[in-house]
Specification:
Blueprint: H1 3-8, H2 15-31, E1 35-36, H3 42-54, E2 60-63, E3 73-76, H4 83-87, E4 94-100, H5 109-118, E5 126-131, E6 135-141, H6 142-152, E7 162-167, E8 178-185, H7 190-197, H8 202-210, E9 214-216, E10 219-220, E11 233-236, E12 240-250, E13 256-263
Antiparallel strand pairs: 1-3, 2-3, 4-6, 4-7, 5-6, 8-13, 9-10, 9-11, 11-12, 12-13
Length: 264
Amino acid sequence: MFEKARNKYKDGEYKIIVAKMIDKYEFCRTKNKITYTDFLNIAEISVISKILKEEHIENYLFWGGKEETDRSILIFYPEKFSKEMIQKNYEKIFEIIRVKLPNNIKYEHREFLSGIMKLGIRREKFGDIIVTDFGADIIVLTEISKILLEDLKTLTRFRKSEITIENINQITNIEPEFENINIIVSSIRLDNFVSELARCSRIQSQELIKNGKVFVNSINEFKDSKKINIGDILTIRGKGKFLFDGVQKETRSGRILLNMRKYK
């Protein structure tokens, strides 16, 4: 099992993450216990999803602490459990570090992220940072929540903040914010979208797709001619995340004016 994946990813960017995923699966299978990875980014999730599908493995799920997270963990569970049973026990795996800032202070996402990284906490050890009106909710694995709590208190930027550990069920739900933009394309092929959204040439957009930098609905897409449908979400690494919101009109020259929404 996993021989194809072992050979394909024996070198390169995903070597370590694929090896760790296989180890987690084998532990679950042989010990008959629930196990899970650290937080994975969209590219890693796409690679692992493809491997698990090829191996016809079904007893797993991805979850990041809430709906529509950018980072999720992979959970393997024994066949004696159901997916619903695992979902009811998320609070044993995830917690929230809640940072309440003083009333006169507002931080953006990058300021929370840089603060955590300054502590030497690896990025895969915590998930999304939900910036709120009062501060932020940081999704973490329960195994590091107490350590991160104490470490955050040592940072000057959070010295006057109230920092607590909360149940994952208490996470603050924030509706995503968007920037509305319009693009004009000759057809609704993926490479046309990438060219306009990444502001690059058609050839450069095809290179981005070829090099695994583009995702459609969180799945790595390598076909530059793929048709994009209304409601699809495109992620271009280093450029942003975009929702195809609809067709506005066709121009006299036969090109198409599209409505897009960029996630802030």
